[in-house]
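residues and backbone:
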Amino acid sequence: MKKPLLVALFVTFTLVSSSQSMLFYNFRNTLDETNGKGPTLKVLGNEGVYVTDTLSEIGGSDKTVYRFEKNNGFQFDNKEAGGFIGESYTIELYFVFDELTSWKRVADWKKRKSDNGAYVYYGQLNFYPEIYSGTAPVFEGEYTYYVITRDGLSDVTKVYTDAEVMIEFTDSYDYAVIDADSVLNFFYDDLVVPNEASSGAVAMLKLYNYVLDSATIKDNWDDIGGTVFGINENKLSMVPVRVFPNPATDNITVDLANMGNKEDIEINVLNNAGTQLFATRINRGNKTYSIPLKGFASGLYLVRINTPSSYTNAKFIVR
């Protein structure tokens, strides 16, 4: 009698697993979802500005980020997204706060009607009213890799910074579940105790409709350049390129003929530890590009190339 139920459960699990998806916001002069699969983020308060910032943890790479004023931010409309975020999800952020005194709002699931939600508090993490962390790797003026996961089966909610679990609790009261207003707010504080917020900037937001495990989060942190810049985005078309000479000593040349001539091209070089050492953006139509290797130690490197619709990875050796 139990066999049909097991089959049904297996089919259900297979369907759920096959529907796992991710939305990516990279803030390159827009609040649009990068692949056109999700809604545009909505401005909360005053509209922010797009600026070029230097990301020290990513080899000093420059990136366009969205800078917001104190007690301003943006909103993800879950209704417009077709209920993309349910009771199981992952929120992956790379952001910086300019000040950390007292409570600074990170995320709000209740459309400003409640004090409940995720904060940074004097360098600790806080999920009010449940739990505080110990001291976390969060500092004023420095970007933080910040991840929230919630498992809808167990209600277990975790908050990571730099791939370390700093908060874990059972969300029995659905504090971390989007309510009937169907919105998820970022950096914009509630109306109960207002102005618990900081100015800052965000370089990346990824939303998953499933729970990332700790090993995947660690991999994403180890490859923070690929995670933030989105050059490992597997929804894009993979295009082969040739890198020569390989092994190399003074420079490498990248053959870009297969990248087409309709889109600008981003080129990034990372070492074997995932640290980005070189980044540039070149105009569409270039057939080759030469990268100087002065200062590169002997070893294995990865060159990553992407356009809005395609990407590639190629390894090379420096001797």
